[in-house]
Amino acid sequence: FVAEYNLPSDERVDLATRYTEPVIIQRSKEIDQLFSPDSDGNTPKTVILSGDSGRGKSFMLQKIMLDWASGELYSENFDVVFLLKCEELKCAVWMMNLFGLLSWSCSLTSDQISQILELKPEKVLILIDGIDELSFDPHIQILLPTNPLQKALPMDTLRSLLNGLILPESFLLVITRSAADTEINLLKGPLRFTEIMGFSERGVQEYFQKFFQDDKTYESLKANESLLTACSVPLLCWMVCFCLKKHLTDDDRVMRELKTTTSIYVLFVSTLLEHHGHSQSVLSTLKSLGLLAEEGMKKQQAFLDEKCVAKTGLDPAISMFLYKDSLKRKNRQVPVFKFMHFSFQEFFTGLFYVLLDENQSWGKVRELLRSLKSKGIISRPCPERRSNPVPSVMMFLCGLLNEKASSSLFEMIKWTVPHTIKLKTDLLESVLTVRRQHGCELFALRCLYELQDEEFVRRALGDWVSMNLSKVSLRSTDCWVLLYCLQCCPHIRYLNLMYCDLTAEKLKILQPALCMCETLRSVCLHGETLKK
Fold this sequence. Notes:
Elements: E1 2-3, E2 12-13, H1 15-18, E3 23-25, E4 46-50, H2 57-69, E5 80-85, H3 86-89, H4 98-103, H5 110-119, E6 124-129, H6 154-162, E7 171-176, H7 181-184, E8 191-198, H8 201-212, H9 216-221, H10 225-230, H11 234-246, H12 251-257, H13 261-274, H14 282-299, E9 304-305, H15 306-311, E10 322-329, E11 332-339, H16 342-355, H17 358-375, H18 390-400, H19 403-412, H20 420-434, H21 441-451, H22 454-460, E12 466-468, H23 476-488, E13 494-502, H24 504-514, E14 519-524, E15 528-531
Parallel strand pairs: 4-7, 4-8, 5-6, 6-7, 12-13, 13-14
Antiparallel strand pairs: 1-2, 3-8, 9-11, 10-11, 14-15
Helix pairs in contact: 8-11, 11-13, 13-18, 13-19, 14-16, 16-17, 16-18, 17-20, 18-21, 21-23, 23-24
């Protein structure tokens, strides 16, 4: 079972019923093929499964464990499966050996695990969720444990497990937002690289049918093509379904208004606040959530203790956006809280900046922009790393300055952003700086798309006569971003989309804008070079 965190009673629903198969690309196309031999007969020891935030990576790990335990998946390959969550391991600061590390997430004792591993280590599968949570500096030489009994800091023990210094016979499935080079160098081979893309259009249809038990709602969704594409992201698909279920009598209007990622989050938050009682004022609740979210961002922590929550004045018992959990602290369980998904921590941080008074907001946004510049690289995969949440916060901030997208929330709290023009001007300066670096253009375009302000977009891209996105992998959602920006700026005459992973579906999205370009370079479909 999995918890539906938006329900007051934390009602649990059947995991298998809610689960919809995502699309996985590169060598393996189905979950049951992840560890199958390649054409040369080589079986990978480590499978890296990467994917953007909200694409269903962690949920898929739970489904793999459920299917293995039910005898439906890998039952002949593995006798035991462990799940290690890096966001939890990050909180452990005491020494432990391999057996202590593996006992962290299950009810088995270190002695029991030791006996299991001695029998058939080649029948062990270890699922590692969120390796991008961790910061491994390849330039720092550390004496890593080479013996399962040797105690070390959890990160060092994990590192030895990843590169095969200990338990080399085992198999690993590593989940990450980005397959960065520093992470790849840590992993034992043979390696297999796969990427989770989210739902296909058929998968979105299946999810809607399961959620609503009818075909009507999905048929209505198809009228909004950009929203249909957004629903390929499982998290957004769930949020859209939840909102539509609460607004059934007005679902056509709701679907028309949902254009950006921020607009989906705003409607979801507004809908939850409408349908749940709260002792605090809504404005006070949102400010407290924002303060809590920013505090976690600064410390790079997803888990927040009771003291940290209490400092904000928030009552976690009535906050539907926080999930109560517990963490192991040596021999005891300590209660902690976390946002229902890390992206909500990013959203509420952006909202916090908008809800501050002018001087405070000004300072916070400038601090955010300085952090953005100091990080240097803004292009994928770096924005998707949880250790660098600044780009996502900035995109939400841009989206919240879109008055139409944020109206349902701001009308509820009777709030008008008093310094919208100043904030937009500062953001414009930042976007102009960022987009001059190749590979960072897409991030700049995403920010502009979230704003949905045509005049602002034209000002930001006013001197562009060409756009070079070569070797930047474009999602279908990115194609809607690019279409919008190109339609706002018909003066862009040259467009380079070489090696952008374009498909017929993505070209169809871009088609209305492509005819406006005098020169277009692209490789699409089966590798043909398209020139105009």
